[in-house]
Design brief:
Elements (H helix, E strand, L loop, with lengths): L6 H10 L19 H7 L1 H5 L6 H18 L3 E5 L2 H13 L5 E5 L4 H10 L2 E5 L2 E3 L4 E4 L2 H10 L5 E5 L10 H10 L4 E4 L16 H4 L3 E4 L1 H4 L7 E5 L6 H11 L6 H37 L19 E5 L7 H12 L5 E2 L3 E5 L6 H17 L27 H6 L1 E6 H4 L9 E2 L15 H12 L4 E2 L8 E7 L5
Parallel strand pairs: 2-3, 2-6, 6-7, 7-8
Antiparallel strand pairs: 1-9, 4-5, 8-9, 10-12, 11-12, 13-16, 14-15
Bound molecules: pyridoxal-5'-phosphate.
The site of pyridoxal-5'-phosphate has 14 residues, from helix 5.
Length: 482
């Protein structure tokens, strides 16, 4: 196929100048009725292209998806306008249901837990490895996966996250081979991996590793608009029809054309110029690591011997400065106009991608140099960063599935009374959106202490019915099992 073509962009451009009386959705009718201030801000073109799925456009979507499947190396691709969230849930709905087991990395995104509420499957959480010195989640190891598959060979699917927020990809090829040796399909949440496979110095993509279903947030690291993602199918372990059925349930019947076009052009960009673009991104990230390592008390993952680490992801450890990542984030944002992707108790994570420039890197370095010079000055309370931050992974089977927990009777209890009860909500620091407490899990003091510490440090806890965490929603009455 000709990867230089962009069927959706071309079809949309043809519509741009057509003069007709629009009696179809959306209601603003190609901008004619839109709020004037919004129009002035955004420009006319955007609204003229905000079109429904007209027949010519539907054909173009099919063609664009074919081009995407070729470029990313899958057998079938579906464009999504509701993010990887929709793709993760489609993967789970397509492969398992009520009464089925699914093996899931415990570092999964909250979208996966929501997927379990939808499909009713029983999760077997896979513990992840952890590098305390760098507060780094290393993901699920092949050994762990094999041991759990030996115990649960009747699982209907394995769902792993690769890369994770820090760019750790793991040995996915080995894990795909292990899963397949048990005749279990591998689903991969590659929300952070849409650029993988387009440069020899990057870890291989989940599709190259042999995964069966893969979802990529093209919007996170490649050049498409927020909320646009792609779901890919490879091989014949999972029927395309099963995926279609799941998407029928989850997808909007009014996909946003601008998002679809952005997926089309992002695919062309990667297919044609991906290697050159990524060469520069990798260079910028490497330069940043070298210069940051020269600043006293800062550490990056420069010399870290972790295989399959995405070099475009930049993590800066600030724990040796005696401040939290949240403090560093506030300083960089308010004092030097540098915005990170994710602060944690010990780190700041920066996403570098095709849009970053040398000037961005220079500002980042300057900002950190200033931060280190002034560190601790505005700090009233020092948070102990030696806190055991390891994800609290239950080593037992849940007594209740996320779906049962979601529909069980629940009530809000004061924190102290909630400890030891089963949670009726998933609580995660956001970002990264990994529940430290999953719906259906026992509430432990250890996990509450970590969540409170994050909240006190300026982090955001998502999913709590009481944002202060003074009360928690717990299950009060269990559904009968018959
Ligand atoms: C690992 C991971 N998976 C899934 C998602 C959800 O992706 P999206 O925002 O495209 O719905 C995120 C979002 O940050 C994520 O980090």
């Amino acid at each position: 196929m000709n990867q230089n073509t962009v069927p959706l962009l071309a079809a949309a451009q043809q519509y741009l100048n057509i003069d007709h009386a629009p009696f179809y959705m959306p209601g603003h009718k190609r901008g004619q009725g839109i709020d004037r201030e919004f129009m002035t801000l955004m420009g006319e073109t955007m609204f003229r292209l905000d079109l429904p799925e007209l027949p010519e456009l539907e054909e173009a979507v099919n063609e664009a998806e074919l081009l995407a499947s070729e470029a990313y190396g899958s057998d079938r691709a579906w464009f999504l306008t509701n993010g990887s969230t929709c793709g993760i849930q489609a993967m789970l709905l397509a492969t398992c249901g009520q009464g089925d087991k699914v093996l899931i990395g415990r570092n999964c995104h909250k979208a996966a837990i929501a997927g379990l509420v939808l499909n009713g499957a029983t999760p077997i959480y896979l513990p992840t490895d952890y590098l305390p010195e760098f507060d780094l989640d290393l993901g699920v190891s092949p050994e762990t996966l094999e041991a759990f598959l030996n115990q649960h060979s009747d699982a209907k699917a394995v769902l792993l996250v690769s890369p994770n927020y820090f760019g750790v990809c793991g040995d996915l090829a080995k894990m795909a081979a292990i899963a397949h040796s048990f005749k279990v399909p591998l689903l991969v949440d590659a929300a952070h991996g849409a650029h993988l496979g387009f440069h020899p110095d990057l870890p291989i993509s989940a599709l190259q590793a042999g995964a069966d279903l893969v979802v990529q947030s093209t919007h996170k690291v490649a050049g498409s608009l927020t909320q646009s993602s792609i779901l890919h199918l490879q091989g014949d372990r999972i029927a395309a029809e099963q995926v279609e059925r799941a998407l029928q349930i989850l997808r909007s019947s009014s996909p946003n054309l601008l998002l679809l076009i952005s997926l089309d052009v992002a695919r062309r960009q990667m297919a044609i110029a991906g290697k050159a673009i990524l060469t520069e991104t990798i260079r910028l990230a490497q330069e940043a690591r070298i210069r940051l390592n020269q600043i006293p008390d800062l550490r990056t993952f420069d010399q870290l011997q972790v295989p399959n680490l995405d070099p475009t992801r930049l993590t800066v450890m600030v724990d040796h400065l005696d401040i939290t990542g949240f403090d560093a984030d506030v300083y960089l944002h308010s004092q030097v106009d540098v915005m990170a992707e994710m602060p944690t108790l010990t780190q700041l994570v920066f996403i570098l991608s095709l849009g970053n420039t040398q000037d961005d890197i220079d500002r980042l370095i300057k900002g950190f140099a200033e931060l280190v010079r002034t560190k601790g000055k505005s700090k009233e309370e020092k948070i102990k960063t030696s806190i055991n931050y390891q994800l609290p992974i239950p080593n037992h089977q849940l007594s209740i599935t996320p779906r049962e927990a979601y529909f069980a009777k629940s009530d809000r209890l004061p924190l102290e009374q909630a400890i030891g009860k089963i949670s009726a909500e998933s609580l995660c620091p956001y970002p990264p959106g990994i529940p430290l407490l999953c719906i259906g899990e026992e509430i432990t003091r250890a996990v509450i202490e970590i969540l409170q510490c994050i909240l006190r440090s300026g982090g955001i806890i998502n999913g709590a019915s009481d944002e202060s965490l003074e009360t928690l929603r717990v299950i009060t009455s269990f559904p009968s099992k018959n």
